[in-house]
Design goal:
By secondary structure, the protein is an alpha+beta fold. It contains one helix and six strands. The protein has a three-stranded antiparallel beta sheet with strand order 1-2-5, with no helix packed on it. Strands 4-3-6 form a three-stranded antiparallel beta sheet, with no helix packed on it. The N and C termini lie far apart (88 Å).
Length: 132
């Protein structure tokens, strides 16, 4: 006596649930792989091709109508850009804001700039630097 096969006849009832699950896993892997590749490509492009300007406020000295700010800027050679500074009074109101341009081939600029204010400023804040 032989035992009956528990296997379904091939092609008679469509795909098995294992084949459908395998197909879904393959599709999900392709989608996630594509997204990962796009993300790595974006970060590589951003790191290699984008020009950067970074700066920091070293010190500042406030007077009644101005704030002298010692600013250190790092940039790519030949990149032109600007940094935006602002000053606030002791009560938190903004008393001055200005953009300071940096041009030339130097990669490090160490400069004291004067930010004119409408009242005595108690801070000198770097809001950001941009190319252009």
């Amino acid at each position: 006596m032989s035992t009956a096969s528990t296997r379904l006849p091939e092609g008679r009832y469509g795909r098995s649930s294992d084949e459908r699950a395998d197909r879904k896993l393959r599709v999900a892997a392709v989608v996630l792989g594509t997204l990962l590749l796009a993300l790595v490509g974006y970060f590589a492009y951003d790191k290699v091709f984008e020009t950067r300007i970074s700066a920091q406020v070293i010190t500042f000295v406030a007077s009644d109508n101005a704030v002298k700010v010692h600013l250190e800027v790092h940039k790519d050679s030949g990149t032109d850009g600007y940094c935006t500074l602002r000053s606030q009074a002791a009560d938190g109101s903004e008393v001055g804001r200005a953009d300071f341009r940096f041009t030339g081939s130097a990669t490090r600029i160490d400069e004291v700039v004067t930010l004119r204010t409408t009242a005595k400023g108690s801070t000198a804040e770097l809001l950001g630097c941009h190319t252009g």
